[in-house]
Write a structure and sequence with these properties.
Largest sheet: none
Distance between the termini: 20 Å
Order of helices and strands: HHHHHHHHHHHHHHHHHHHHH
Helix content: over 70%
Oligomer: single chain
């Protein structure tokens, strides 16, 4: 259910991004993405790591039958993040010169100001999300985020069609703030329906801060990194002779068109990461822990390589059809390999966080980001705007390697991950040939949309068919999950 809603939410988000490319110029898209990068820094500060902390507390207290402790923790974290978000809002209002200087356009300040309500609402909702997550009520979490996406798109279209705001960028941001407010209110209703209450008790602030600091550090550094990279790369391109408008346009293409498509596999992996944190906390023996981790890795590789033939063959026609931009497809084809380290680093970081290794993942992430920053100064001369994609992929390789070493060292987790990568890559070769053949056939007989759909379906079916034929996909993983699911239902009854 979580995966279905995650995919639906991501599909809506993808359609929404297509809509944004239609109502904005590529330069406006670049300004918007740069502003959103700064916004994400603020969102990180007000509670990006809170859901994980609250979910772990909730899951642990359910196991120990200590529900009052959960209520005290949720209430304390709610007070903490709400007060801090209001402080940030006041700070934004008096920081117009700085924000304008960073973004390089006066409209950037208006964008951030219009997003202030969403920052406060996010601070409130993050506690609710963590609580529902800890209860393993993934349906409630998913439905809130799905509703928010629908509201966001709906309000944006209304604002754009009625011309309420002079700039489409402001319309997009105001729509987000309203959607966040309504979805947070809905989240509060779900919190109360799931036996959530607000109770305050002294002494809980310190524990929450101590638990969230490493994760906040990781996510804050990541949030700061994105706008930093988005500033460095256009600056380097301008030094190489490119105009400012063209540099921002290239940035808009990569961040607003190519990256959203390349992040599609992260939807499935992210859904699994949400599930594994409370589950790994409840594992009682080391053997079961290793088994689950290996199953998560196998599932992740399957999700990633399923997209490789599609991205390699269909990137250019897909971006041409969706965005009317051939450059986005070119960048996507050239850099589609980055989804492999991105997915594996995402999974292994979540596993280590679930196993209380937040301090370690923070150090590893900082090191990988330093490498990424260094590459953004070196590579633009050779590969231009593709630096953003290549630097991201390279830093993810380093992060995954460090995470994997830590899992082996601390928990004795042995994987045949590199052998599995080779097997999946070999399977992809005939699938790539099949995908290319089908695209050439369908493109001569069908329209662009149906060609993409049918070719994609054939590619996925061909990939899974070969996995089963060669015994690479372990059906026991799915069977074990279904059996465990029904056992849990029987226990509840």
């Amino acid at each position: 259910m979580l995966t279905i809603f995650s995919v639906l939410t991501r599909c809506l988000g993808f359609i929404y991004k297509i809509y944004l490319t239609k109502i904005m110029t590529t330069t406006e898209l670049g300004i918007y993405n740069l502003s959103i990068s700064i916004y994400m820094v603020l969102i990180t500060l007000v509670g990006a790591s809170i859901p994980l902390t609250i979910s772990k507390i909730t899951a642990s207290n359910i196991k120990n039958k200590n529900t009052d402790d959960t209520k005290y923790s949720v209430t304390s974290s709610l007070i903490l993040t709400t007060v801090f978000s209001v402080f940030l809002a006041l700070l934004i209002l008096i920081s117009k010169p700085l924000i304008t200087l960073i973004i390089g356009d006066s409209i950037g300040y208006l964008i951030i100001v219009s997003l202030i309500p969403s920052i406060i609402f996010t601070a409130i909702y993050s506690q609710i999300r963590g609580y529902l997550w800890g209860l393993e009520n993934y349906f409630a979490v998913s439905i809130v985020e799905f509703v928010e996406q629908i509201l966001r798109i709906g309000f944006c279209i209304i604002f754009a069609m009625t011309g309420v705001f002079s700039s489409p960028i402001i319309a997009v941001c105001v729509a987000l703030s309203i959607a966040c407010g309504l979805s947070t209110f809905y989240g509060l209703i779900l919190y109360i329906k799931n036996n959530g209450k607000f109770k305050y008790k002294k002494g809980y602030f310190k524990g929450i801060i101590k638990s969230t600091l490493p994760l906040t550090g990781v996510r804050l550094f990541g949030s700061l990194l994105q706008p930093l990279i988005a500033i460095i790369i256009p600056f380097m391109l301008c030094n190489l002779g490119m105009s400012k408008d063209l540099a921002l346009s290239e940035l808009g293409i990569v961040m607003g068109m190519t990256m959203p498509l390349l992040s599609i596999p992260s939807t499935l992996i992210g859904a699994m990461c949400m599930i594994l944190i409370p589950r790994l906390n409840s594992v009682s023996n080391n053997f079961e822990l290793k088994r689950q981790i290996n199953n998560y890795l196998k599932f992740t590789l399957t999700c990633i390589f399923m997209f490789i033939p599609i991205f390699l063959i269909l990137s250019t026609p897909l971006c041409t059809y969706v965005y009317s931009n051939i450059d986005a497809g070119f960048y996507m084809t050239k850099c589609s390999w980055i989804i492999i380290p991105l997915g594996l680093s995402q999974l292994t970081t979540s596993i280590l966080n679930a196993l209380n290794q937040e301090n370690r993942t923070f150090v590893y992430y900082i090191f990988s980001c330093i490498i990424m920053i260094a590459l953004t100064f070196i590579l633009p001369k050779f590969i231009g705007i593709q630096t953003m994609l290549v630097a991201t992929g390279t830093s993810s390789i380093i992060l995954f390697a460090l995470n994997l070493q830590q899992l082996r060292k601390m928990f004795g987790v042995k994987t045949n991950i590199f052998k599995s990568i080779i097997y999946h890559a070999l399977v992809c070769i005939p699938v790539i040939i099949l995908t290319n053949f089908c695209y050439n056939i369908f493109s001569n007989t069908l329209g662009a949309f149906m060609t993409l759909i049918f070719t994609g379906i054939v590619s996925v079916l061909g990939y899974f068919g070969l996995l089963f034929v060669f015994g690479i996909l372990d059906v026991n993983i799915l069977k074990d999950y279904i059996i465990a699911h029904f056992k849990n239902k029987q226990k509840v009854k």
